[in-house]
Amino acid sequence: MTNLVLFGPPGAGKGTQAEFLKEKYNLVHISTGDVFRYNIKNETALGMLAKSFMDKGQLVPDHVTIDMLNAEVEKNTDANGFIFDGFPRTNAQAEALDKLMEEKDSQIDGMIALEVDDEVLVKRLLERGKTSGRTDDADENIIRNRITEYYKKTAILKEFYSAQDKFYGVDGVGSIEEITQRLSKVIDAL
């Protein structure tokens, strides 16, 4: 089993690369955002619980998110592994994910971070905003704030995974194929 945490600031190309990697390695891509939307739309017990916090403008507690991720892992017991996208975002979440994987007799093999210069990210997101319909991709100030928030809140995870010798930074600039090749090189060496 190969279990990866795919990381990078908004616009780094995580979603695009996850699609290629899941096909190439037969992995299940678990995007926290997609899992939240699915559970809320289908009014699952966990979705309704998450929504109750979101409706008040509060963060969804880690245990609720972990329970949702656990349900996704359970749905895919025959998977060759998982790509976690959008989770973890804090040390506590990383520790909870390690515990979840241990309970499945598995582990996180690596955290791969797509590294992209801020100006490239802004340009990419503004371009995506022209077609995505996402309002947070259309305003440069909001984009820059999202990038700043990413670095403030998630840089700590680089230290968490580096301490376990599981952090891998990958250049996220170039053609989609070039970036996929760089990621594959890291994954093949795990």
What do you see in this structure?
With 190 residues, the protein is α/β, with parallel strands linked by helices. The chain has one domain: P-loop containing nucleotide triphosphate hydrolases (Rossmann fold, 3-Layer(aba) Sandwich), CATH 3.40.50.300. α2 packs across α4. It is globular, with a radius of gyration of 16 Å. The termini are close together. GO terms for molecular function: AMP kinase activity; ATP binding. One of its GO terms (biological process) is AMP salvage. Catalyzes the reversible transfer of the terminal phosphate group between ATP and AMP. Plays an important role in cellular energy homeostasis and in adenine nucleotide metabolism.
